[in-house]
Amino acid sequence: MSKKNIALFALLLVLGVIYIFYFTNLFRKTTMEIVYQISPKMGRGKGAIENAVIFSINGKFKLTSVKVVEDSDLKTNKYPHALWHLVSSSNSLPTKAVIYGIPVRGMQSEIPKMKPEKLQKNIPYVLLLEADEIKGQTKFQIR
């Protein structure tokens, strides 16, 4: 190979690396950011939910675990009691939002037939989300 061909190959290689680094997510660690909102009443009639807690995620994630625990329990216990815990047995659908107590499509309760516990006012809780190796959490409370 001539010097001209080697220089051209090196230039293409450098441009390829720059393209991969800046225009793909190959080397970026994806983060999960969660924002919550409390709706005083969601729905109508008998199926209405009081103080619905809606969690929005900064992208679509195939969740593998959704868990809500008390903040004080999480700080003091290695395995805190889950008030609500969903797991994915195979493939959950990509989702951008989770509503407390409503199952995410493709997920089921870790303990069969277990219902989510009622959230109390003025008690800090933590939502823990997992999507394979990506994890996110947020603290919230109902006032």
Fold blueprint:
Layout lengths: L2 H21 L10 E9 L6 E13 L3 E6 H6 L5 E6 L7 E5 L8 E2 L15 E7 L2 E7 L3
Antiparallel strand pairs: 1-2, 2-5, 3-4, 3-7, 4-6, 7-8
Would you write up a description of this structure?
The protein is an alpha+beta fold and 143 residues long. The protein is 19% helix and 38% strand. It contains two helices and eight strands; from the N terminus they run H-E-E-E-H-E-E-E-E-E. The chain has a five-stranded antiparallel beta sheet. Strands 1-2-5 form a three-stranded antiparallel beta sheet, with no helix packed on it. A hairpin with a 6-residue loop joins strand 1 and strand 2.
Strand content: 35-45%
Instruction: Choose one word for the global shape.
Output: elongated
Mean pLDDT figure: 87
Computed CA radius of gyration, to the nearest angstrom: 22 Å
Q: What is the count of β-strands? A: 8
> How would you describe the oligomerization state of the chains in this entry?
single chain
Q: Roughly what percent helix?
A: 10-25%
Structural features:
143 residues; alpha+beta; 2 helices
Tell me briefly what this model is.
The chain is of the alpha+beta class and 143 residues long. It is built from 2 helices and 8 strands.
